[in-house]
Structures are given as C-alpha cells and as structure tokens.
C-alpha cells in the first residue's frame, strides 16, 4: 500500500469521497483501494454494503444452476437457487458465521482479502413443471378432519440426479454451469444472463462409496455433511450432495479386492455454494448488460438446456412490410429461421 503522507484528498469529508466513489463499479473500486489508507477504508465499507445488497431478495436477478453428465446436456432442466445464508468456510466446508456481523457495513475492520473468504449458500429447487408427482397419504386418525387431511402439506423432496459408473470406471464427470439471469415478465423469459462459472465436477467411485457410508451412519438426518465438490480451481462455485446407492440389491455378494463392478448412485442436491465477491461482480455485469440491451429477450426452455438462445417474439420489425406483402413476409420468415 502507498505511504500515508498527507495529501489534499485527505482534507475532503467522508461524505464527499463516498459520493465520488459510489458510482464506480466494484472492479474499479478495488483498483483504487491501494491509493492510501483512507481510500482503502472507504472502499472496504462500500464493498461491504454491496455484498449485503447482493443478498436482497427483492432483486429481479436470480441464480440458476445446471449440473448434468455430458450425455444429458439437452435433457437436464435448470434449477433456480434460493438464498439461505452467508458463511465463511474452513477447509472442511462446515464453519458458519453470522452474515449480519460480516456484512452489516457498520464497521470497516478486516481487509478486502477477508471478504473473499465469504460464501453465499443457496438451496437448488426444481421448477413446478419438472417435479415428480407425489402420492398424498391421509392420516388414519380420528382427530383429523377430512378437510385437514386434504390440506396437509407434503414436503417436497430435493432435486436430484443419477450417476452411473460402468465396470472399471473410477469417476464420472458432471458439467456444472451457474448463471445470473435477469427475469422477464413471463415465465421462462430472461432479459439477459451472465455466467458465474462454467466448470466440471469429477465424482470419484471411492468418494461416492464413502459418502454413502456417511449418510447411512448419520441415519439420513444430516448430522454429518459431505465436503463440497468444487467446479473450478479458484473455488468460486461448489455443490454439496447427499449420496445414496440405487442398486445395492443387485450387486454380487462376493467381489475381489481389485474388482469395480457397474454401480449407480443418486445425488440429492443439498446446497450450492458461491463466493460472494464473485457473485457481486457477476450481478453488476448482468445489470450493466440489461441497461445497455436493445430490448431483446432470451427464452430458455425450463424443461432442459437449449444449444443456442432463441430470440422470442422480439424479432426486428420491417417498416417496408405491408399486410398484403406476401414476398416481404416470406423474407421475414427466412431471416427468422436463420436466427433460430
């Protein structure tokens, strides 16, 4: 950091410095932080406020997750992610801190580097059209009215995916893509999307077996939690699963020590973990893109991924096209087909 010699900027009140620095993006603020200690303190406070604002549930921006084997890229639906809390992770990924004491912005202790260790936790949720139908069982109790049984809330099971390992395979790979999307006025309509991370989770056979044993030992109640699988080397995005064996009954009773039979596992999503500072930078880029867009929207089919975004219902209007101009209408349709 530069020396703390007195400069004319030190004579300015904090309110003026705040008004000067507030319009700058977080990326630009970080570049100005080393100017002197006072600027560093103001930048730290501004970034703390912005990190807290990222967690505002009133925002029109949403976080979506796509996690799938490469062979299921076109059939796996995306998942919306509901914010849970912010915490600081240790090596085991289990240490939690109160988000209000970390991001209230009322104090400026710590450093910008400390803020990088904060992670936002999200719970992936399935869309209504992708949820599996569940049977509703009525209670056999004389004290429960028929109407109460009808209105009883049945908890939804978490979204999940299946992982299959062929004989001899030591691992499987899951493509993991997270995006910040700006929601439109209609279902499935996004005004824009900005990528947070695009990586690959490598799920090892030994890890799956150990995770299944941990889940069984915990009795399925979550007393023990598996480590987070990270989708990138920088540890910006990670996913935590609950693992269960699908076909244990069909395996042979006796296996050699060096035999690796075909096996299938079910992975239930527990949480998505995103570095809060990375999420802040992505949401700022997303807001900037929406502000400078020309009014086009992107439609993403909630039933699964699409190879390319489709421009929906906002194709440019041709002023020369008359209602009876059949040739002009044909030209528009040809251009539309090329875009799609």
Automatic annotation (TrEMBL):
Entries under SUPFAM superfamilies matching the protein: F-box domain (SSF81383)
PROSITE patterns (UniProt xref): FBOX
Record-linked InterPro entries: F-box-like_dom_sf, F-box_dom
Chain intervals for the UniProt region annotation (Disordered): 91-111, 127-155
Residues annotated as domain F-box: 6-55
One Pfam family per UniProt: F-box-like
Official protein name in the record: F-box domain-containing protein
